[in-house]
Amino acid sequence: MSTITTQDGTEIFFKDWGPKDAQPIMFHHGWPLSSDDWDAQMLFFLAQGFRVVAHDRRGHGRSAQVDHGHDMDHYAADAAAVAAHLDLRNAVHIGHSTGGGEVARYVAQHGIPQGRVAKAVLVAAVPPIMLKTDRYPNGLPLEVFDGFRTGVATDRAQFFRDVAAGPFYGFNRDGAEVKQGVIDNWWRQGMMGSALAHYEGIKAFSETDQTEDLKAISVPTLVMQGDDDQVVPYKNAVVLQAELLPNATSKIYPGFSHGMLTVNADVLNADLLAFIRG
């Protein structure tokens, strides 16, 4: 397996496919998944001639199940370590959900200062913050995320099954085409990771205020969001991201779920390609 070891001794797994002199696209996965969640995008963009890179966040997938660093700062630093190790330049960074938060912090605090980033994409992403606060009163109450913590701590396997079979892909909607393989693959990815990383990661994706990260992202940024997202409140996220990002384009997909990158990959891949080449 391809791995690097970060400054704090954490082993991070990554994939690096395609011509090393091609423009790189680096993908950042959501909670509690792994780089495997990007299969449909990595194969598509590889066929288009790009270099495609994805890593497993610490505690997730095939990366080390360490007992520390499950926060947005370490997530971004780990991504920066992979990008530096591979010397990725003129790169496009695409993040889904929690991975969108990772992209925002990486691009703002590492990628732009190091001159490595050309564009960014936030897909159903968590910034600026998911939690309801005085600054962002339209966020979700803390009880929602406490429910996530209870699910992980008491019966993670069943909780992950319920999330994948229900709100994540919109399979709980009347008339939805339920894909058992997609549910099983989500569950497989989740159960590969560490319960501790998943538990502590809930605070990272829900309570991290990334207002200043968004303001600092000067490169062209595409915001993609489904309007039937049952995980990230789409109106709050899209409006705030568009307001805070200096160079943003927003695209809302009617009826698409939080997991649209998988179940609507054909539509999103075409739009991602147009943005990257535009």
Overview of this protein structure:
With 278 residues, the protein is α/β, with parallel strands linked by helices. Helix content is 44%, strand content 16%. It has helices spanning 39-47, 72-85, 98-111, 142-165, 180-192, 195-207, 211-216, 234-244, 260-263, 265-277; strands at residues 3-5, 11-17, 24-28, 51-55, 91-96, 117-123, 221-226, 248-253. Strands 1-2-4-3-5-6-7-8 form an eight-stranded mixed β-sheet, with helices on both faces. A hairpin with a 5-residue loop joins strand 1 (3-5) and strand 2. The longest helix has 24 residues, at 142-165. It is globular and about 45 Å long. The N and C termini lie far apart (34 Å).
Give a topology summary.
Layout: E1 3-5, E2 11-17, E3 24-28, H1 39-47, E4 51-55, H2 72-85, E5 91-96, H3 98-111, E6 117-123, H4 142-165, H5 180-192, H6 195-207, H7 211-216, E7 221-226, H8 234-244, E8 248-253, H9 260-263, H10 265-277
Helix pairs in contact: 2-3, 4-5, 4-6
